[in-house]
Each structure stands twice: as C-alpha cells, then as structure tokens.
Amino acid sequence: MRAPLAAARPDPQVARWIVRELAQARPRAPSLIITIWGDAIAPHGGAVMLPGFFRLLAAFGINERQGRTSVFRLSREGWLAGRRIGRRSLYRLTVDGARRFEQAYRRIYAPPVERWDDTWELVAATGLPTRRKQALRDVLAWEGYGVFAPGVYARPAQSAGTLPATATAAAGADARLLAVRAHDDPSLGGASLASTIPRAWDLTAIATDYRRFLRRFGGVIERFRTAPEEAHDPEQCFLVRTLLIHAYRRVLLRDPRLPGELLPLDWPGTAAFALCRDFYRLTQRSAEQYLSAVLEGPRGSLPPATAWFYDRFGGLETSSTALR
After folding, report:
1. How far is CA 179 from the centre of its chain?
2. DSSP alpha helices (H): ranges in the chain?
3. pLDDT tens string 258-278
C-alpha cells in the first residue's frame, strides 16, 4: 500500500521554473534514469516496479515508450536486471551496477576535502600503446588524477588511497605501473607539483560550469527557503532535487576535488556543494514522501531508506529551520 501524499499546493513560481527548465535543457532519458536510480532508488533497496517508475519519468516529459527503451538499454549495458512479477516488471540494480553507482555517488555526496597533509600520490606508466594509454588516463581521471607529464599522473593523497584495480586492468596485465607517495621539496630547486595544477586540470572550465550551475538553481531554491516546510509540494521537491543532482553530478564528476589550499579563494565548487546540501536537507522529508507514494518495491510499499542515505552531504538530520 503506497503512502498518500500531503495536501500541500504546488507553488506556481516553482511550477513555471520546472516547465522552463525542461523546455530549455530536458535531460536525456538514459542519463536521467541513472540519476534517479542512484539518487532516489538505490537507497530504498535498488529495485522498483516499472509502472510507478514510469510515473516518475512522466513528470520530466519522458513517456513510457522512451522510459522502457532506456531501461532496456541500461539492462543491456549491465546496470539493471528485470524479472516478471505477475503482469508487471520489476527492475533492480545488478551487482556491477550497484558497484558503479556507489563509486560515483560516494563522490557526489561527500563534503569537500578540508584537510590535507601535503602528500601526493603519483602513478607512472611508460611504453603503453595508444589505446591502453587512453584507457588508463580515463580511469585515473575518474579517480581524480591529473596528467602532470607524459605518462605521469598525480593527485593529492587520500586517506584510504590505493591504486585502483581498474587502472591495472586498463593498462594491461603485462604493464608495469609505478605508484608512489611523495612530498614537494623546495630545497631541490625544481617546480612544485602544486604549480603544475593549472596544466593538469582545467579548473577554469570547471569553475565556469559551477557558476552556471549556481545561477541556474539559486533562484528556485531560494523560493523553497522562504516557504514553510509544510507548504512544500512533495512532487516539486522531488523534481527540483532530481534536476539539481543531475546537473551537479555532471559538473562534479569532472572536478578532481582538490583540497581547499590548492584551489582559488573564490572556488565556486564549495558554494555548489552547500547549495545541494541545504536543498537536500530542506526537502528531504517531502521528496521521500513523494517517492513512497509513487513507487512500489518487490514486496509492495517502497522499503525505507538505508542508514547510509542519511550520511549524504555530511548528514541529513539537520532540521530545515536551521537553514533559514
């Protein structure tokens, strides 16, 4: 039995913003499904009946045919697996799909790096054929490494940092990857690793995208801030949250998430994180209520969110009144 929705009235200004946003920058169906599954469904067990899921998509202007085609495509790519339950279909994350979601969304909801001990992690690879060199570069870029010299990749050391197994696979079993930890030593007279950052990452382009993101969502989110929480329409909360996270992840997953001391003082990524964190906390209960009303899991009602869901953005227990 699905939970009934609260009787809050939709905000006309927010409704106009949603219509305008979807008209100007409607997300592609497969990409949006990835966002919804990772942001909203994975915390509730990762499995839903398709009829309710298509209802979610319809609010974004994606019809059932487009949704079904995209779900089948994601199944072929190994993200999802389906089975029949009576006359309906249930789709869930595969083991590999869940792993890939966890890898990406762990970064999306993690707070910015505030403390760093000046240690760098370096990976060196030489003599690789072009195809494997590009594959290794892509894998390491996903893990936050920049290209510091031909065949040399580096990132500020992470507390649990190890050379990703995917890097070895990308380079090939017969490749020799040198992985070391290092510190800058000014006494040697060479350029510091920190001075190479502008060549290793295009921070200017990433900053531009963050500022565009802040302009795009700042006004509509301020509208939610100025209204009492009980006045938030659950469907609007879910729609805006989804569009917000969809846009945020597209910028953030290109961001190496450097420690603050390596970034410009006016780095807009910090404000983008705060915007997402505040809106997530502000609309958490209403958005979750909408999901419970629309979606069904394998046993009927959507299961409650898992404990790790509440660790997002540094913790979701903060009350909305603390954000005013």
Report:
1. 28
2. 12-25, 29-36, 50-58, 64-76, 95-108, 130-142, 165-171, 197-200, 203-225, 234-252, 269-294
3. 999 999 989 999 999 999 999
Q: Is pTM, for the whole model, over 0.70?
A: yes
Q: Which domains does the chain have, with CATH numbers?
A: 1-113+202-324 (no CATH), 119-183 (3.30.70)
Q: Is 210 exposed, middle or buried (0-12, 13-18, 19+ CB in 10 A)?
A: buried
Tens digits of per-residue pLDDT, 69-81? 999 999 999 999 9
Q: What is the mean pLDDT of residues 132-158?
A: 88
Residue 128: which residues within 8 A CB-CB, separation 6 or more? 136, 151, 171, 172, 175
Beta-carbon contacts of residue 323 (< 8 Å; ≥ 6 apart): 225, 278, 281, 282
Closest CA to 107 of 251, 261, 290: 251
User: Minimal CA–CA distance to 224: which of 215, 213, 234, 214?
Assistant: 234
Q: How many residues does the chain have?
A: 324
Q: Cα 286 vs. chain centroid, distance in angstroms?
A: 20
Task: Yes or no: say if 32 and 246 are a contact pair by the CB < 8 Å rule.
Answer: yes
* The two structure tokens encoding residue 258: 């450097």
pLDDT at 156 over 90: yes
Beta carbons of 240 and 16 less than 8 angstroms apart: no
Task: Please provide residue 231's backbone torsions phi and psi, each rounded to the nearest 5 degrees.
Answer: -90, -5
Residue 19 near residue 240 (C-beta atoms within 8 A): no
